[in-house]
Structures are given as C-alpha cells and as structure tokens.
Amino acid sequence: MSAKKVIKTVLQIILFACIGGAILYYVFQTQQENYFAECANKGIAKSDCSLLDKVIADFKSANYWWIAASVLAFMLSNMSRAIRWCQAIRPLGYKTKFSNSFLSIMAGYGANLFFPRIGEVARCGVMSRYEKVPADALMGTVVAERIIDVICLALVIGLAMLLEADMIIAAINDLRNNSTSTQEASSGTPWILYFGIAAAIGLMLLVIFRKKLASLGIVDKLKGVVKRFVDGILSIRHLENPWLYIAHTIFIWVMYFMMTFLCFKAFEPTASLGPVAALTTFVFGSLGIVIPSPGGMGTYHFLTTEALQLYGLSGDDGFSFSNLMFFSVNVFGNIFFALLAVILLPLINRGYVPAMKLGEAILPNEENKK
Asked: Which residues contact 287 (CB under 8 A, 6 or more apart)?
C-alpha cells in the first residue's frame, strides 16, 4: 500500500472515530446535566457529583462472571456464524476450514472498531488469502448473509413491538419531538433527490459511451467480478442443508439477545429486569450499532440509555450500563479475538493447501471451468 493510501485510510479512521467520539461526548454531557439535577434533589454538592466517577465506580462493582458469560455468548454466536459461512461457500465448490472462517470473522469485527462497515470487506480479504476463494465471490455470500440479518433484525423489532408496543412508540415519539426543531431548521432539497439526479446522469453517460467502454479490457474483468459476486449471493439457494443454515441463524440471534440479558445480571440496577426489557434494550442497541460509527460508539450508548429509561432506570445508570456492555463485551471481545486472529491465522495455515473439490460446485465459477 502506498504512503498516500495509508494516509487516506488513517484520516478516514480518525474522522469516523471523531464522529463516534462526538456523539459519545454529547450523550455524556446530556447525562451529566441530568445527574447534576438528580444530585441537587438529594442535596449533594455539584463538585461531588461526577458522572465519570460514577461510571468508573459502576465498572468496579460489576459482576465480571456475568460479563464473561456475555462474552461467551458473543463467541458462540460467531462460531455458529463461521459454520454457516462455510456452508454458504460450499456451493461455490470450495471446502473451507472452520478455524479460518471463525478467525476471519473476528478479524473483521476488529476492523469495524476503526472503520465502520469495513469488517465485511476485511473478513473476505482474510478468508480469500488463506483459502484462495475469490474475494468477490465471498463478498456475495456476505451480502446474502447481511440480507438475512436485516430480515432477522426486522423480526426481532417486530417481536419487541408486539410485546412492548405502547412503550416503544412513546419512546420514538419523544425522540422525534426532541429533534423537531432541528428538522424544521434544515430546509432545502432532500439528499435522496440529489442521489437520484446523480444516478440518472451516470446511467445516461453509460448508455452514451457503452461502445467505447465495451472495447476496454477492464469491462471483461468487471463482468467476471460481478458474476462471481452474484454467484456468491445465489449460493444460499443451493445449500446442501438449508435447515441447518436456518438453525444456525436462529442460534446466532438468540446468542445476541443473551449477550444483553447476561450483561443485565452483571449490573445491579438492571439485574432485576426481565427478558422483555432485555429484548427491548437489545433492539435499541442493535439499531445504534447499525448506524455507521466505530463499533456503534456514541449511537449505541444513546439508544441503549433511552431504552433503559423506559423501564425506570435513571439516565446515569443507563449510561453506565451502555458503557459496561459496549466496552467490556463489544470492544474488549472484538479486540481480544481480533488480536487472536492476527496471531493464530499464520500459524494454523503454515503449510496448509486449500482443498478445491472440482466438479462438486453447484454454482459454476472460473476455477471449475478450467
């Protein structure tokens, strides 16, 4: 990688980290003001009322056995995801190792902490390096996986709405009301209109210069990339055991829920909350992670704190829990396993020759045609 690309990548990482940090700082300042008001009601001096000190004290008092159980649920979900990924790759004609699949996924999670949504690309790059599967085909399998994840998230949101509809709708209305002034102040052409105009111009240019583009060698290469990418997406239609794929999908999302529920037990103010509260908090937190900031930093804290306030927790307790969950489970778990991946991948693949079983691919690819 050239020095220019390295600098560009570093600047992008810094930019997204600053965005996440700014959101986290905003949430912290908001909860600090609320904490001051709470202290004033209790007759505690403002100088003795530090939210940061409270968060540190809450970290020290947490039960880390429950935190460890939450990290274990995280690990089990990704082991299941790794098996599912190997299953999705198999119709392309490649038999991949579970260890490479699992460690590639963990390396991708680590990358997400520095650059939002880059983890999918990173894990495909790592897997391609050690298993010699075309990266574009792997990206297709990941896109199919993400489509399924979106469907699962929608189902989980639907379940939460079914169980806590009135409460969640009230929370959404509060968030909408708080942002009304900002929305009214921002007038002008919607960004989606600009996107539509740009897309129309791009399509028109493609039509005008289609013959010249067709004469370039790069077009054939792009066609190959697109074809392998589409093959990766369609691989899910040719699974050897679709029910096993579905079972792993269900298990993954149950473990995601268990991560929040187990972490509830680690923190005294949330220890008495039940599974429905954990489900609602999990849904809000998941939406916070979906928003592109490093690992969901800031956005996760904001939405998780809002969710917990629905169940009577103060904003400062909700903020403490969101930090406990985010840094103990998400950040520590991701960093630990990502470093483990960096160390183990070269060792377990020393002398390893990927096995490509020609003739067994359900979907055609370039290697099968040779």
From this structure: 303
pTM of the full structure: 0.73
- Write the pLDDT tens digit of every residue in 28-81: 676 667 666 667 766 777 777 777 788 788 888 999 999 999 999 999 999 999
What are the residue boundaries of the structural domains of the chain, listed by start? 54-178+201-369
For the segment 16-26, the average pLDDT, to the nearest whole number, is 62
Instruction: Give me the sign of the Cα torsion angle 123, 124, 129, 131.
Output: positive
